[in-house]
């Protein structure tokens, strides 16, 4: 389970999460006013964007234990047992204050008009509807899904808050990398900024794996982590093409690296770098001429 300290989300999402914390700190005020607290949250978004880390962050911030259940492993082929298994877990979680994470929520809360599913799953949806309505405000139930379009609409409506976590924007990617590199020598800010620029459509989980691999290699090779990061990024780009050419150009113009340094960092020949930079400059010039 990832630690929640490195959570990086948009300002709007963090504002909503902090509001959940504030509700808990002023729980009695809300109860006296008949307003109630956020009891259930649905987190959706592509894999690796921080849904599990968000649950961990909330649990740490509220100083509550985190219970986690992967629902895709619970569903049983034996009639009736899945519903009983899930009910027993929910009953246990309600026995004391906690944060309960139901991961892979779509595994059980699918649309009831989906004819491809057995009747057991339809019964489980009804169990979930009842439990969401009865969930106590002393605990926080968080459901996470990569496929919100599969959820039964009645289930979605039962959640007090629905938060959509998108892939991180450029500034968020830089914040993630900076947090990972904190306290590690050789992680120059300008190189981390370059990686953030060149990793669109990359999840926070993928960035973390990229950093971890690069950090290990830097230790084994006695090199700078940021250099290994850029080298790994270059190897991940198609063997040839505009993306790699642009990377070469940015490495030269932004980082001040020579063609030979770029060649050493990316594992290609010096002439390949020179040719790629020339093509990138031509493409850049053509783009400016069209504007």
TrEMBL record:
**Ranges of residues in domain AAA+ ATPase:** 37-169
For this protein, the record's CDD domains field holds: RecA-like_protease
Supply the alphabetized keyword list.
ATP-binding, Nucleotide-binding
PANTHER family named among the record's database cross-references? 26S PROTEASOME REGULATORY SUBUNIT
Q: Which family does it belong to?
A: Belongs to the AAA ATPase family.
What is the protein name given in its UniProt record? Answer: AAA family ATPase
């Amino acid at each position: 389970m990832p630690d929640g300290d490195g959570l990086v989300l948009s300002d709007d999402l963090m504002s909503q999460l902090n509001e959940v914390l504030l509700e808990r700190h002023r729980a009695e005020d809300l109860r006296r006013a008949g307003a109630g607290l956020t009891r259930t949250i649905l987190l959706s978004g592509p894999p690796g964007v921080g849904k599990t880390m968000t649950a961990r962050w909330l649990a740490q911030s509220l100083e509550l234990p985190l219970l986690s259940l992967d629902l895709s492993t619970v569903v049983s082929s034996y009639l009736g047992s899945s519903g009983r298994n899930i009910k027993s877990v929910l009953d246990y979680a309600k026995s004391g204050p906690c944060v309960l994470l139901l991961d892979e929520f779509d595994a059980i809360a699918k649309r009831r008009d989906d004819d491809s599913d057995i009747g057991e799953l339809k019964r489980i949806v009804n169990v979930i509807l009842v439990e969401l309505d009865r969930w106590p405000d002393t605990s926080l139930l968080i459901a996470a899904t990569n496929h919100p379009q599969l959820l039964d609409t009645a289930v979605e409506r039962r959640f007090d808050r629905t938060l959509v976590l998108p892939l991180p924007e450029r500034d968020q990617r830089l914040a993630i990398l900076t947090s990972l590199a904190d306290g590690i020598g050789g992680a120059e800010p300008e190189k981390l900024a370059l990686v953030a620029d060149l990793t669109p459509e990359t999840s926070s989980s993928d960035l973390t794996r990229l950093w971890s691999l690069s950090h290990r290699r830097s230790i084994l090779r006695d090199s700078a982590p940021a250099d290994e990061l850029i080298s790994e990024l270059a190897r991940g780009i198609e063997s040839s093409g505009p993306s790699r050419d642009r990377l070469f150009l940015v490495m030269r113009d932004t980082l001040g690296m020579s063609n030979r340094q770029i060649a050493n960092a990316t594992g290609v020949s010096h002439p390949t770098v020179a040719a790629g930079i020339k093509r990138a400059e031509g493409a850049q010039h053509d783009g400016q001429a069209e504007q």
